[in-house]
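Regression report. Comparing outputs from two consecutive submissions.

Submission 1:
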Amino acid sequence: MNILIIEDEPLTVLGLKQKIGAINPVTVVDSASSVEKAYELASRNTYELIILDVDIKGKAGTGTVERMKALYPGTAMLIITDLEEGIYGLPYMKAGADGFLWKLASSAQFDEAIRAMMVIGKYASTALQHQIIQESQVNRSLRYVNPLMSISERERQVMNHLIAGKSTGEIAAILNINKTTVGTHKMRILKKMQVNSLIKLIEKVTMLS
């Protein structure tokens, strides 16, 4: 297994190498003191795991993580940082990191994180796992909100007439509004329902009603 450590603190690099060696003595470990040097090494070697200290000189934000994952999609990435996990853990994981470890974590947590990254390529503390689950549940709930709930009473009237096959002129006459207003309502309805045609609107309303 080949691992790249991106870290500008020699003692941290030494500590990580010792922990990695204790888990798998035959692992090849390279280190880079800057992101630029890391790209240079990664262009010549294939790594199964990258350990990145985002507090490295010059800083490495979520954009760096996104770029690295785009360049090396098959490489697992563990973030280590002084930044608080509760605030920064989720954003870095959403950017593409496969693991996040607070530098002030216990030695046992370091061992657990590195072992997990080497074996399965994933790691998150219990607290971060809960955050990820909560985020997923919120996103799932938002995805399943019925778009019909966002339709106003007037839009619903227009929509019902559209579904019934009435023309713009007929709807304008029935509701005593001008055709331009009917057209505006129609565009809003299609946008809210996330469809681009009357046929798709009918299908979606039928499915959700």
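Submission 2:
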Amino acid sequence: MIIGESIEVRWFLPADDARAQRLTSWFAHASSEPPRTDRYLRLQRADLGVKERGASGATSLETKFRVCAFGPTHFSPTILGELERWTKVAHGSTDADDGGRGWTILRKERRVRVFELVGGRVAEVTHGTHARAGGAVELTRVELVDGDGRAAPAALTLGIEAFGPPETLLEALYGAGRAVFAEQPDLRLEAAASKGYPAWLAERSTAI
């Protein structure tokens, strides 16, 4: 079992949003991960998430508890997001075959940039470099899938997740956010679009 803490901020946009192509182009050279499918337990709660990574053949069941919400925070004059602190518990999963009942299936295609915090300064690191503290900035295309394999309209989620010792998380998140958004000074992201996966999934529980 692994227990950890993170502070995160995340925005969700429809894939046909005018900003979607801009975000996709911006992250075109970021490190890409193989596509994967996760399952989320339908809980109808914004403060609790249960995820089985990889759906079939999953090796990890992850539970996230929201410890606190910091409220809207500016990363730049035009970037406003809802900061949340989470405790995560991950352990092995037997991937019980329940026919999908009670679960939401989500396909993901993810690109990630990593910023390291060292001595109060934040700088982007190359792929494969291990950072002790910092922030992961990710752009992910997500699709809700029903039991017949049909997908609802896709969305893009842009998120920043701080990692490292608990006392560095806020500094790392702010540093990574300010560094990455300095590259797009006229990008606009509103607090209304900012939420975690549990809240976003609860809003779409009847989408398909």
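Expected: both submissions complete independently.
Actual: both completed, but the second showed a warning that disappeared on reload.
Relevant detail on submission 2: The CA atoms of residues 53 and 188 lie 31 Å apart.
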